[in-house]
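Worked example

This section walks through a single chain of length 60. The input is the sequence exactly as stored; nothing has been trimmed or padded.
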Amino acid sequence: MAVPKRKVSKARRDKRRSSVWKLDAPALSKCPQCGELKAPHKVCGSCGYYKGVQVINKEA
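Given that input, the structure is written out below as tokens.
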């Protein structure tokens, strides 16, 4: 069974736990039609356009 040869210092332990597990903010891009923020490669939720083509009919 593997056993540590030396005690892991608090600094080394805390460095390992620091920012590796933080979640990243989701990427957002601006819709070219309406200017709202949307997820990239997805249909815009406010106007229904994707790559300049109306995919979902949204009533204003």
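What to look for: The longest strand covers residues 29-30.
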